[in-house]
Amino acid sequence: MADVLPVAQIVIHGYANGEFDRVVLVYTQFISTVNQRPVLKQLLPVEPPAGERARPADFIYEPSAEAVLNQLLPRYVETLVYQALLEAIASEHAARMVAMRNATDNAHEVIDDLTLTYNKVRQAAITKEVAEIASGALAMS
User: Fold this and answer.
1) Where does residue 7 rank: exposed (0-12), middle (13-18), buried (19+ CB within 10 A)?
2) pLDDT tens readout for residues 3-61
3) Disulfide: which of 31, 69, 106, 138 matches 35 by Cβ 3.0-4.6 Å?
4) What is the CATH number of domain 5-109?
5) Residue 7 pairs with which residues in a beta bridge?
6) What's the rounded Cα separation, in Å, for the pair 20 and 41?
């Protein structure tokens, strides 16, 4: 999380100061070991999920709704950036793991093919030697 905080702070301050109109996070979402999906997610401005009711519930906030929101929104952005980083790292490790498994399987296939070729060549040499010995024995008799 300590590595993510500087990035999140740049994003938050840039948006608050008007340097950015919109902040979008692009990362690889980890779904499973063999399935990762690219994701484009808008961080700022924060928009409510589709299907939410338009009129918010009426609550009393202490100290105030604005103060609570000012404390929660930076943590929300930091958490989303951290989640994206973790999912991207998990996706990278999964992709490497699958690639290494495929390389190992291919190496085993090559080893099996080379072992078969070696055994065929060795068997041919043995057969040739036996034929030469039999020919020599026949010629001597």
Assistant:
1) middle
2) 889 999 999 999 989 999 999 999 999 999 989 999 999 998 888 777 766 666 778 87
3) 31
4) 3.40.1380.10
5) none
6) 15
